[in-house]
Design brief:
By secondary structure, the chain is of the alpha+beta class. It has two domains: 52-88 and 192-283, no CATH class; 90-191, Elongation Factor Tu (Ef-tu), domain 3 (Beta Barrel). Helices cover 19% and strands 41% of the residues. The protein is built from one helix and twelve strands, in the order αββββββββββββ. The strands form two sheets. The protein has a six-stranded antiparallel barrel with strand order 2-3-6-5-4-7. The longest helix has 53 residues, at 17-69. The radius of gyration is 34 Å and the shape is elongated.
Length: 286
Protein backbone atom coordinates (compact mmCIF):
# COMPACT_ATOMS: atom_id res chain seq x y z
CA UNK A 1 0.00 0.00 0.00
CA UNK A 2 1.43 3.32 -1.04
CA UNK A 3 1.29 6.32 1.32
CA UNK A 4 1.38 9.86 0.00
CA UNK A 5 3.03 12.71 1.83
CA UNK A 6 1.90 16.33 1.47
CA UNK A 7 4.43 19.01 2.15
CA UNK A 8 3.13 22.39 3.39
CA UNK A 9 5.27 25.42 2.75
CA UNK A 10 4.68 28.48 4.98
CA UNK A 11 5.54 31.87 3.73
CA UNK A 12 7.62 33.82 6.36
CA UNK A 13 6.65 37.46 6.87
CA UNK A 14 9.56 39.83 6.15
CA UNK A 15 10.53 43.52 5.87
CA UNK A 16 11.30 44.98 2.57
CA UNK A 17 14.11 47.44 2.04
CA UNK A 18 11.66 50.27 1.44
CA UNK A 19 9.86 49.55 4.72
CA UNK A 20 13.18 49.46 6.56
CA UNK A 21 14.13 52.83 5.13
CA UNK A 22 10.78 54.27 6.21
CA UNK A 23 11.28 52.96 9.77
CA UNK A 24 14.74 54.47 9.92
CA UNK A 25 13.51 57.87 8.72
CA UNK A 26 10.67 57.92 11.28
CA UNK A 27 13.03 56.82 14.08
CA UNK A 28 15.48 59.53 13.08
CA UNK A 29 12.77 62.18 13.21
CA UNK A 30 11.63 61.01 16.66
CA UNK A 31 15.20 60.92 18.00
CA UNK A 32 15.93 64.37 16.59
CA UNK A 33 12.78 65.73 18.27
CA UNK A 34 13.78 64.19 21.60
CA UNK A 35 17.29 65.61 21.29
CA UNK A 36 15.99 69.09 20.51
CA UNK A 37 13.65 68.89 23.51
CA UNK A 38 16.46 67.81 25.83
CA UNK A 39 18.77 70.50 24.44
CA UNK A 40 16.10 73.15 24.93
CA UNK A 41 15.46 71.98 28.51
CA UNK A 42 19.19 72.01 29.26
CA UNK A 43 19.60 75.55 27.90
CA UNK A 44 16.57 76.71 29.87
CA UNK A 45 17.94 75.16 33.07
CA UNK A 46 21.36 76.75 32.53
CA UNK A 47 19.82 80.14 31.85
CA UNK A 48 17.63 79.95 34.96
CA UNK A 49 20.61 78.90 37.07
CA UNK A 50 22.63 81.93 35.95
CA UNK A 51 19.67 84.26 36.51
CA UNK A 52 19.27 82.90 40.04
CA UNK A 53 23.01 83.31 40.64
CA UNK A 54 22.95 86.99 39.66
CA UNK A 55 19.74 87.62 41.61
CA UNK A 56 20.95 86.01 44.83
CA UNK A 57 24.23 87.94 44.65
CA UNK A 58 22.60 91.38 44.70
CA UNK A 59 19.94 90.36 47.25
CA UNK A 60 22.54 88.95 49.65
CA UNK A 61 24.85 91.93 49.27
CA UNK A 62 21.98 94.36 49.83
CA UNK A 63 20.89 92.60 53.04
CA UNK A 64 24.46 92.62 54.38
CA UNK A 65 25.12 96.30 53.67
CA UNK A 66 21.75 97.56 54.89
CA UNK A 67 22.03 95.63 58.15
CA UNK A 68 25.46 97.18 58.79
CA UNK A 69 24.55 100.73 57.79
CA UNK A 70 21.19 100.88 59.57
CA UNK A 71 22.80 100.83 63.03
CA UNK A 72 25.14 103.76 62.34
CA UNK A 73 24.92 107.37 63.45
CA UNK A 74 27.15 109.68 61.42
CA UNK A 75 26.98 112.28 64.21
CA UNK A 76 28.75 109.73 66.47
CA UNK A 77 31.59 109.41 63.93
CA UNK A 78 30.49 105.90 62.96
CA UNK A 79 31.57 106.57 59.37
CA UNK A 80 35.35 106.71 58.96
CA UNK A 81 35.32 107.54 55.25
CA UNK A 82 32.89 107.44 52.36
CA UNK A 83 33.47 106.87 48.64
CA UNK A 84 31.42 105.93 45.58
CA UNK A 85 32.34 102.24 45.69
CA UNK A 86 33.50 101.74 49.29
CA UNK A 87 32.68 102.76 52.83
CA UNK A 88 34.51 102.31 56.16
CA UNK A 89 32.41 102.15 59.29
CA UNK A 90 32.32 101.16 62.94
CA UNK A 91 30.67 97.75 63.03
CA UNK A 92 29.17 96.10 66.10
CA UNK A 93 30.68 92.63 66.25
CA UNK A 94 30.30 91.38 69.84
CA UNK A 95 28.45 91.93 73.11
CA UNK A 96 28.61 90.76 76.70
CA UNK A 97 27.80 91.61 80.33
CA UNK A 98 30.35 92.99 82.76
CA UNK A 99 30.40 90.53 85.65
CA UNK A 100 33.67 91.33 87.48
CA UNK A 101 36.01 94.30 87.63
CA UNK A 102 39.60 95.15 88.39
CA UNK A 103 39.25 98.90 88.38
CA UNK A 104 42.91 99.61 89.08
CA UNK A 105 44.01 97.97 85.84
CA UNK A 106 40.78 98.85 83.98
CA UNK A 107 40.18 95.16 83.38
CA UNK A 108 36.78 93.50 83.32
CA UNK A 109 35.51 89.95 83.15
CA UNK A 110 32.61 89.45 80.73
CA UNK A 111 29.82 86.87 80.81
CA UNK A 112 27.38 85.82 78.08
CA UNK A 113 29.69 86.92 75.29
CA UNK A 114 28.21 86.73 71.78
CA UNK A 115 30.42 87.32 68.76
CA UNK A 116 34.18 87.76 68.51
CA UNK A 117 35.49 89.70 71.51
CA UNK A 118 39.17 89.02 70.75
CA UNK A 119 40.98 92.28 70.16
CA UNK A 120 41.90 93.60 66.73
CA UNK A 121 43.79 96.89 66.30
CA UNK A 122 41.38 99.80 66.54
CA UNK A 123 38.66 97.93 68.46
CA UNK A 124 36.43 100.02 70.69
CA UNK A 125 33.47 99.44 72.98
CA UNK A 126 30.44 101.12 74.49
CA UNK A 127 29.87 100.39 78.18
CA UNK A 128 26.55 101.33 79.74
CA UNK A 129 26.94 103.53 82.80
CA UNK A 130 23.91 103.80 85.07
CA UNK A 131 24.49 106.71 87.41
CA UNK A 132 21.87 107.39 90.07
CA UNK A 133 18.42 105.95 90.61
CA UNK A 134 16.93 107.89 87.71
CA UNK A 135 17.69 107.72 84.01
CA UNK A 136 18.82 111.33 83.54
CA UNK A 137 22.48 110.51 84.14
CA UNK A 138 22.55 107.19 82.29
CA UNK A 139 24.92 107.08 79.34
CA UNK A 140 27.05 104.87 77.11
CA UNK A 141 30.76 105.38 77.74
CA UNK A 142 33.06 104.97 74.73
CA UNK A 143 36.37 103.22 75.44
CA UNK A 144 39.12 101.62 73.40
CA UNK A 145 39.81 97.92 73.91
CA UNK A 146 43.56 97.80 74.45
CA UNK A 147 43.84 94.09 75.23
CA UNK A 148 41.74 90.94 75.53
CA UNK A 149 42.46 87.71 77.37
CA UNK A 150 40.65 84.45 76.68
CA UNK A 151 41.87 83.17 80.09
CA UNK A 152 40.26 85.57 82.61
CA UNK A 153 41.88 83.68 85.49
CA UNK A 154 45.27 85.04 84.46
CA UNK A 155 43.98 88.48 85.48
CA UNK A 156 42.16 87.27 88.59
CA UNK A 157 38.78 87.57 86.85
CA UNK A 158 37.89 83.90 86.48
CA UNK A 159 34.58 84.09 88.36
CA UNK A 160 31.78 86.65 88.29
CA UNK A 161 30.93 88.83 91.29
CA UNK A 162 27.47 87.33 91.67
CA UNK A 163 25.88 85.24 94.40
CA UNK A 164 25.46 82.32 91.99
CA UNK A 165 28.79 80.87 90.88
CA UNK A 166 29.47 81.76 87.27
CA UNK A 167 32.70 81.86 85.28
CA UNK A 168 33.77 84.76 83.09
CA UNK A 169 33.90 83.99 79.37
CA UNK A 170 36.66 86.46 78.54
CA UNK A 171 38.42 89.50 80.01
CA UNK A 172 39.14 92.85 78.38
CA UNK A 173 41.32 95.81 79.29
CA UNK A 174 40.03 99.24 78.30
CA UNK A 175 41.63 102.64 77.88
CA UNK A 176 39.63 104.79 80.30
CA UNK A 177 38.42 104.52 83.85
CA UNK A 178 34.83 103.32 84.02
CA UNK A 179 34.40 103.31 87.79
CA UNK A 180 30.86 104.58 87.38
CA UNK A 181 29.94 101.39 85.51
CA UNK A 182 28.19 98.83 87.67
CA UNK A 183 28.45 95.05 87.60
CA UNK A 184 25.82 93.72 85.21
CA UNK A 185 26.26 96.55 82.70
CA UNK A 186 26.06 95.58 79.02
CA UNK A 187 29.12 95.97 76.83
CA UNK A 188 29.06 96.30 73.03
CA UNK A 189 32.29 95.88 71.08
CA UNK A 190 32.95 97.61 67.77
CA UNK A 191 35.47 97.09 65.01
CA UNK A 192 36.49 99.10 61.97
CA UNK A 193 35.20 97.39 58.82
CA UNK A 194 35.51 98.54 55.22
CA UNK A 195 33.21 97.28 52.48
CA UNK A 196 34.08 97.80 48.85
CA UNK A 197 34.41 96.35 45.38
CA UNK A 198 37.70 94.79 44.32
CA UNK A 199 39.10 92.63 41.52
CA UNK A 200 40.30 89.05 41.84
CA UNK A 201 41.09 86.61 39.02
CA UNK A 202 39.57 88.93 36.43
CA UNK A 203 36.23 89.33 38.23
CA UNK A 204 34.84 91.98 40.58
CA UNK A 205 33.61 91.10 44.06
CA UNK A 206 32.15 92.68 47.18
CA UNK A 207 34.82 92.42 49.87
CA UNK A 208 35.46 93.32 53.49
CA UNK A 209 38.55 94.61 55.29
CA UNK A 210 38.57 94.14 59.06
CA UNK A 211 40.63 96.44 61.28
CA UNK A 212 43.83 97.43 59.52
CA UNK A 213 43.78 94.59 56.99
CA UNK A 214 45.57 95.41 53.74
CA UNK A 215 43.47 93.20 51.46
CA UNK A 216 39.81 92.36 51.07
CA UNK A 217 38.11 89.17 52.20
CA UNK A 218 35.70 87.96 49.52
CA UNK A 219 32.02 88.12 50.49
CA UNK A 220 29.90 87.74 47.36
CA UNK A 221 29.86 88.32 43.61
CA UNK A 222 30.71 88.58 40.82
CA UNK A 223 29.63 92.20 40.38
CA UNK A 224 29.81 94.50 37.39
CA UNK A 225 33.09 96.45 37.05
CA UNK A 226 33.29 99.75 39.02
CA UNK A 227 32.04 102.97 37.53
CA UNK A 228 29.03 105.28 37.49
CA UNK A 229 26.86 102.27 36.61
CA UNK A 230 29.16 99.71 38.21
CA UNK A 231 28.69 96.82 40.59
CA UNK A 232 28.59 98.97 43.74
CA UNK A 233 27.55 102.62 43.71
CA UNK A 234 27.00 104.44 47.02
CA UNK A 235 25.39 107.88 47.16
CA UNK A 236 25.33 109.85 50.40
CA UNK A 237 22.67 112.41 51.38
CA UNK A 238 22.36 114.80 54.30
CA UNK A 239 19.21 115.46 56.33
CA UNK A 240 18.01 117.88 53.62
CA UNK A 241 18.27 115.12 51.01
CA UNK A 242 21.20 116.87 49.33
CA UNK A 243 24.22 114.87 48.16
CA UNK A 244 27.13 115.21 50.60
CA UNK A 245 30.75 114.11 50.77
CA UNK A 246 31.16 114.85 54.49
CA UNK A 247 30.89 111.65 56.60
CA UNK A 248 29.55 113.47 59.69
CA UNK A 249 26.66 114.96 57.64
CA UNK A 250 25.39 111.69 56.17
CA UNK A 251 21.77 110.87 57.03
CA UNK A 252 20.81 108.61 54.12
CA UNK A 253 22.86 106.20 52.03
CA UNK A 254 21.60 104.94 48.69
CA UNK A 255 22.99 101.55 47.66
CA UNK A 256 23.01 100.47 44.01
CA UNK A 257 24.21 96.94 43.31
CA UNK A 258 24.62 95.33 39.88
CA UNK A 259 25.68 91.71 39.56
CA UNK A 260 26.61 89.36 36.76
CA UNK A 261 26.37 85.58 36.87
CA UNK A 262 29.52 83.53 37.37
CA UNK A 263 28.78 81.36 34.32
CA UNK A 264 27.22 82.06 30.94
CA UNK A 265 24.07 80.87 29.23
CA UNK A 266 22.80 81.03 25.67
CA UNK A 267 19.87 83.25 24.86
CA UNK A 268 18.85 84.17 21.33
CA UNK A 269 21.90 82.37 19.97
CA UNK A 270 24.29 84.52 22.03
CA UNK A 271 26.37 83.21 24.94
CA UNK A 272 26.55 85.79 27.75
CA UNK A 273 26.38 86.40 31.51
CA UNK A 274 23.03 87.13 33.11
CA UNK A 275 22.70 90.36 35.10
CA UNK A 276 20.53 91.72 37.90
CA UNK A 277 20.38 94.88 40.00
CA UNK A 278 18.83 96.27 43.18
CA UNK A 279 18.52 99.79 44.56
CA UNK A 280 17.74 100.62 48.19
CA UNK A 281 18.12 103.45 50.70
CA UNK A 282 19.23 103.22 54.32
CA UNK A 283 18.32 105.87 56.90
CA UNK A 284 20.96 106.18 59.62
CA UNK A 285 20.23 106.64 63.31
CA UNK A 286 19.64 110.15 64.65
Amino acid sequence: MRRSFRTTVREEAGVTLIELLIYMVVAGIVMASIYQLMLSQSMSYTDQREITDARETVRGAAVLLTSELRQLAASDNDLYFIARDSVALRSSHASGIMCRRNGVDKRYGLFGVAGDMTRVAGDSALVFAAGGAGTADDSWRAVAIVFSNSTPGAWGLSSCSWTVAQSSDIAIQVSHDTSIVKIGAPVRAFRRVQYGIYQDAGRWWLGMKVGGAASYTKLTGPLMPPGATGGLVLTYYDSNNAVTTVPANVAIIQIMLRSRSYGQSRRGGTLSNRQDSVRTKVYLRG
